[in-house]
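Protein record

Derive tokens from sequence
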Amino acid sequence: MYVTIGNVPKEIRRKPSKHAQVLFAYLPVARLDHMVSESSKRRASQNLFHACMRRVLRPLETAGAEGVRMKSGDGLVRRCHPILAVYAGDHPEQCLVSCTKTTECPKGVPSGPLGENVPCHPRDVSDILEALEEYDPVEQPREYAAWCSGIGIKPVLNPFWKFLPYANIYQSITPDVLHQLHQGMTKHLISWLQSAFGSLELDHRCRCLPPNHNVRHFSKGISGFSRISGKEHAEMCKVLLGLVIGLPLPDNCSSDKLLRAVRGILDFLYLAQLPSHTDQTLNDMSIALDAFHANKSVFVELRIRDDFNFPKLHSLLHYTSSIQLFGTTDNYNTEHSERLHIDLAKDAYAATNRKDELAQMVVWLERKETITRFDEFIQWRLRGRPPPPKGTPPK
């Protein structure tokens, strides 16, 4: 679990060397082999996760409501109310946090099937909190489970966000470019195109593309990859539209609708990653998504898909509102936390002897942080011990 604060500029937050995102806790992953029932294991794992998160975030319960004095970089002390504003994670983590099923939207309740381009009504967290206070999951387990089933959430024992002030977990869940676009829609789109035109034809066109600057040349095609990373999917998107232009579909069917659908998804992907947005770019995102939904029936006509009811396609509807609330998507992309796994989890584990590794990892990280702070102190002394910038008190 990593934490950061919202007033850090994103050009600093995105650099692991700046330490703007801090490792806050290692969450346990228990196999629970002593349990026979798979449903009992799932419920116990969910309750364990929320119990650990509740313990880790307990200081926010008082600090968020009453405030706490903090010193900022300009040397001024201000009264701050730290609250849970954004939770970034992939789809299974979002469902685990919001207590929803993995086949549903973790943010809201759609008006129709997940594959349709219809508005999604957000869940009312106040009604859920009132019901959590009314039912006792320990004393009234059946009534509590029946009520949770009626509103579409899982019967988790005291979700951690129940005790956090001013927290709306269904609003805090943000889009994830890495898992929803690169490892989600791009992955689906490539498999659909391979089914439509054939892998051999697409690979042949890849090999025929001339090398170019800032564009990866797939000399062996794109179908031979066993495990594709998000970066590789992003590189494939640069040439994907060019690969399918002019290719005939089976039975001499027109490929116009397919090209419009592919361009709609690619336009949406690139617009969603812009470092700054205006009303025009947000409107362009909606137009691109509408173009895909207007032409997606071609994949059904080609018998590639029966429907589009999967959450990663539905999640695209939430990008515009999340950008308006929390800024551009590079503020909460899980690509940054995935990168931190190397420094703060994998390297730390590699430094242990693989026996009782957690305690050794914590000590290794503490020593590494101490060395980093001491190095910053030495650099400050070498610069002549400059004083902190004088801030102007807020009016």
Remarks:
- The first strand starts at residue 2 and ends at 3.
- The two ends are 36 Å apart (CA to CA).
